[in-house]
Amino acid sequence: MNKRQVGTQYESMAVQYLTEAGYHILERNFRCRTGEIDIIAKDGAYLVFVEVKYRASAACGSALEAVDYRKQQSILRVAQYYMVSHGYGTQTNCRFDVVAIQGTEITLIQNAFGA
Predict the structure, then answer these.
(1) Angle at 38 between CA 114 and CA 11, to 5 degrees
(2) Cα separation of the two ends of the chain
(3) Which tens digit of pLDDT belongs to each residue from 49-95?
(4) What are phi and psi of 85, to 5 degrees?
(5) Alpha helices, DSSP H only, in the chain?
(6) Range with the largest mean pLDDT of 33-47, 61-75, 89-103
(7) 31: which strand partners?
(8) How far apart are CA 95 and CA 43, in angstroms?
(9) Cβ-Cβ contacts under 8 Å for 72 (sequence gap 6 or more)
(10) Using 50, 70 and 90 to split pLDDT, how confident is the model at 6?
(11) Pick the residue with more confidence: 44 or 67?
């Protein structure tokens, strides 16, 4: 499998995990000129932007470490564009979650970083 196929496989695992946790998936792989967000969902009153990271092992760092400041800024810009383009107001409650898949272990970090 190539990297995109592997990514799609683990994003599907994350979607299943989030759905079982009560999230309502709105979109997958939302793209615009400034970047991409893996999953956009609703969790209660929150609009949630989810980044999915996979690492087979911790040899090259953990999956959580891969969501660095630069990646966070990219996600924030795409989230702002999504909210404007889909008619969400500035009063919309939103948060940024990370689903880290390390080997076979899935970890959900809610509110992993802020705007």
Answers:
(1) 125
(2) 35
(3) 999 988 765 555 565 666 788 999 999 999 999 999 999 988 899 99
(4) -70, -20
(5) 3-20, 69-85
(6) 33-47
(7) 36
(8) 10
(9) 96, 113
(10) low
(11) 44
Give the residue numbers spanning the domain of 75.
3-113
Count the domains in the chain: 1
Q: What is the rounded distance in angstroms from the CA atom of residue 90 to the CA atom of residue 93?
A: 8
* CATH value at residue 40: 3.40.1350.10
CA dist., res. 50 & res. 95, Å (int): 9
- Residue of 50, 42, 66 lying closest to 12 (CA atoms): 50
Whether 108 and 17 have beta carbons less than 8 Å apart is answered as: yes
How is the beta sheet containing 46-55 ordered, strand by strand? 24-32, 35-43, 46-55, 94-102, 105-113
Contact present, 23 and 48 (Cβ < 8 Å): yes
Judged against a pLDDT cut of 70, whether residue 14 lies above it is answered with: yes
Q: Which backbone phi and psi does 91 adopt, to 5 degrees?
A: -90, 0
